[in-house]
Design brief:
The protein is mainly beta. The protein has 3 domains: about 140 residues, Sandwich (Immunoglobulin-like), CATH 2.60.40; about 170 residues, Sandwich (Immunoglobulin-like), CATH 2.60.40.420; about 150 residues, Immunoglobulin-like, CATH 2.60.40. Helices cover about 5% and strands about 40% of the residues. The protein has 4 helices and 33 strands. A 6-stranded mixed beta sheet has the order 13-12-15-20-17-18, with no helix packed on it. It has a 6-stranded mixed beta sheet with strand order 14-22-21-16-19-23, with no helix packed on it. Strands 25-24-27-32-29-30 form a 6-stranded mixed beta sheet, with no helix packed on it. It is globular. It binds copper (II) ion. Pfam families: Cu-oxidase (PF00394), Cu-oxidase_2 (PF07731), Cu-oxidase_3 (PF07732). This is Laccase. GO terms for molecular function: copper ion binding; oxidoreductase activity.
C-alpha cells in the first residue's frame, strides 16, 4: 500500500493497530501570561497553571513507559492561539495529538480546551512545547520524562536542566523587527542579538545595560539556578535545549560529563568536558561529585557568538550565598561536538545495525542570503494550509499535494534522507514520529558549499552502529545523511525548528 508521506519544511507521513494496557495520568492545565522577571527584567511570560500555581518552565510530566497521558489544555491567553507538541513521542496511535498547528490540528483558540491524550511509548528525556509560531520562545515548554523499567541509571539522583536564551520582548516583537523592510530597501540582519540565558527559567541580566528608554523594572543580581549535590555521589543531569536561535556549549567547572543517552536513546558512556547541544536535543549526562565541596559554575556558551550564561553546582556543605571562585578554560579540554562518536547500547530496543535503505529523499535547503528573510526546502517555502494537513488526508484519503513538499512512502520503507544545506549557518533538523539513524555528515568548508555526492560520500556512512536520535544539527554549507524506517502508521513531519525562522516562514 502506498501511503502518502508529506514533507513540509518537510513532512514524511505513513496507520497502525494498537493495543494498550497501563495507567493513565491526567493533567488539567491553563496556559497563561504572567508578568515576571526570570533574569531580573520584568516582562510578560507564557507559562502553565496546573491548578496549584503558575509555572515557567511548565510542570514536569513524568510517567512510566507505556502509560497514557491526558492533558486537558485550556488556552487562557486572551489574544493568542496555542498548541502543544510532545517532542520525543512518536504518536503512533494518535497522530492527531502531535500538536503541530495547521498540520495535525487546528490551533486552540483563546478560552478553548483541547484534550491531548497519547501513549507515552518512547522512554527517556523529552519535552513539550508550543508548536504555534515561535510561541515557545515566550516560555511555553516543559519536561516530559518517560521512565524505562530497564533504565540502567534509574537509581541515580537526578536533575532536569532546561537551557534557553531569553529576550526582553515577546517573540513576535523580537523577531518581527528584523523582518520589516528598511527605507533603503534592505532588511536588517534577521539574527537577533543574544540578550540573556536561563537555566530552568532562571538567569541573570546585567540591568545596567538597559537603555534609558526602557521603563520596565529590572532587579539586579537575579538568583542563579542552583543544583545542590552531595559529595562523592553520581548524579544524572537531563539537559534539554529549549533554545530559539543558538546552539550551546555546556560544561561544569572542574567536572567531567559522561553522556549516557541522547534524545532518549542509550549510548555507551562517553566522557567529555564540554558538550554541544542543538535546539531541541536532549543529553542525559552523569556527573560524579568528586571535587572539593564548594560552588562551581555550570556554563552554557552560545556557539557562534560566545555569550555565556550560568547556573551553579553547589555541594551541600558549601555556602548557598557565595558564587563559585574557580575558573575554567573553555579553550582547552575535550569537547563532544555532535553525536558521531557515540555508540548505542544493547539496552535500546531498536536494531543497532540500520537496514539497507530502499528509498532516497533529497532535501535541499536554501535561503535568501545574506539577509535570510525567507528559506526554502526544494525551492518551496513553507505555507501552512488553512485546513490542517492531517484532516485533509483523512477526509480525502489522499495527501494534499498542493501543500509543501510531499513525498509518498510505503509503510515499512527504509528511507534514506539526504539533506543539503546551502546556507552559511547550521540548523536543527527534527523528525516527528520516528527516531533516525545518523549515518554521516559532510565536511564543512569556509569558502564553498559541499553538497552530497553519492560516489564520494556513500562510503562514509556508518552502517554498523550509528547513533539514533530525533534532532540533529545540519552543518553549514554541507550535507547530512539520516535514515529511518517508515513504520509509524500515520505521519511524520520534518522541521527545521528555529523559532525565528518559524515566525518568518509562517508569515
Ligand atoms: Cu517532535
Amino acid at each position: 500500500m502506498e501511503i502518502p508521506i508529506l514533507v513540509l519544511l518537510s513532512m514524511l507521513i505513513a496507520c497502525n493497530s494498537w493495543l494498550t494496557v497501563g495507567a493513565r495520568h491526567q493533567y488539567q492545565w491553563t496556559v497563561q501570561y504572567a508578568k515576571t522577571n526570570p533574569d531580573g527584567y520584568f516582562r510578560t511570560v507564557i507559562g502553565i497553571d496546573d491548578g496549584t500555581k503558575w509555572q515557567f518552565p511548565g510542570p514536569v510530566v513524568r510517567v512510566a513507559k507505556g502509560e497514557w497521558v491526558t492533558v486537558l489544555l485550556h488556552n487562557g491567553l486572551p489574544t493568542e492561539a496555542t498548541s502543544i507538541h510532545w517532542h520525543g513521542q512518536h504518536q503512533r496511535e494518535t497522530p492527531w495529538m502531535d500538536g503541530v498547528q495547521q498540520i495535525t490540528q487546528y490551533p486552540i483558540l483563546p478560552t478553548k480546551i483541547f484534550n491531548y491524550t497519547f501513549h507515552a511509548d518512547i522512554s527517556g528525556t523529552h519535552w513539550y512545547h508550543s508548536h504555534t509560531g515561535g510561541q515557545y520562545t515566550d516560555g511555553l515548554f516543559g519536561a516530559l520524562i518517560v521512565d524505562d523499567p530497564n533504565d540502567p541509571y534509574r537509581d541515580l539522583p537526578e536533575n532536569i536542566v532546561f537551557i534557553n536564551e531569553w529576550y526582553h520582548q515577546t517573540v513576535i516583537d523580537t523577531f518581527d523587527i528584523f523582518t520589516e523592510y528598511q527605507p533603503t530597501g534592505h532588511f536588517y540582519n534577521p539574527l537577533v542579538d543574544f540578550v540573556s540565558g536561563l537555566f530552568n527559567g532562571k538567569g541573570r541580566y546585567n540591568c545596567s545595560l538597559l537603555t534609558s528608554f526602557d521603563n520596565n523594572t529590572c532587579i539586579p543580581d537575579s538568583p542563579y539556578e542552583r543544583f545542590v549535590v552531595e559529595y562523592n555521589q553520581t548524579y544524572r543531569f537531563r539537559f534539554i535545549s529549549a533554545g530559539s536561535q543558538f546552539t550551546y556549549i555546556l560544561s561544569v567547572d572542574q567536572h567531567n560529563l559522561t553522556v549516557v543517552a541522547i534524545d532518549g536513546n542509550y549510548v555507551q558512556p562517553h566522557t567529555t568536558q564540554q558538550l554541544v547541544i542543538e535546539i531541541g536535543q536532549r543529553y542525559d549526562v552523569l556527573v560524579h561529585m568528586n571535587q572539593p565541596p564548594d560552588n562551581y559554575w555550570i556554563r552554557a556558551v552560545t556557539e557562534r557568538t560566545l555569550n555565556e550564561f550560568n547556573a551553579i553546582l553547589q555541594y551541600s556543605t558549601a555556602s548557598n550565598n557565595s558564587e563559585p571562585k574557580y575558573s575554567w578554560n573553555l579553550t582547552t579540554g575535550t569537547i563532544l561536538l555532535d553525536s558521531k562518536p557515540l555508540i548505542p547500547t544493547n539496552v535500546n530496543t531498536f536494531s543497532l545495525r540500520p537496514p539497507n535503505f530502499t528509498k532516497t529523499v533529497f532535501l535541499n535547503i536554501t535561503c535568501h542570503e545574506p539577509v535570510i528573510d525567507k528559506c526554502f526546502v526544494n525551492e518551496k517555502q513553507l505555507r501552512l494550509p488553512s485546513i490542517p494537513t492531517l484532516l485533509t488526508m483523512f477526509q480525502n484519503q489522499v495527501a494534499p499535494y498542493n501543500t509543501t513538499n510531499i513525498f509518498d512512502l510505503a509503510y515499512g520503507d527504509n528511507v534514506l534522507v539526504i539533506i543539503n544545506n546551502f546556507i552559511n549557518g547550521s540548523h536543527p533538523m527534527h523528525l516527528h514520529g520516528h527516531d533516525f539513524y545518523v549515518l554521516a555528515a559532510g565536511p564543512t568548508s569556509q569558502t564553498s558549499i559541499i553538497n552530497f555526492n553519492e560516489e564520494r560520500d556513500a562510503g562514509s556512512f556508518n552502517k554498523e552502529n550509528p547513533p539514533r536520535r530525533d534532532t540533529i544539527s545540519l552543518p553549514r554549507q554541507s550535507w547530512l545523511a539520516i535514515g529511518f524506517v517508515a513504520d509509524n502508521g500515520c505521519c511524520s513531519l520534518m522541521l527545521y525548528d528555529i523559532s525565528a525562522f518559524k515566525k518568518r516562514n509562517n508569515k
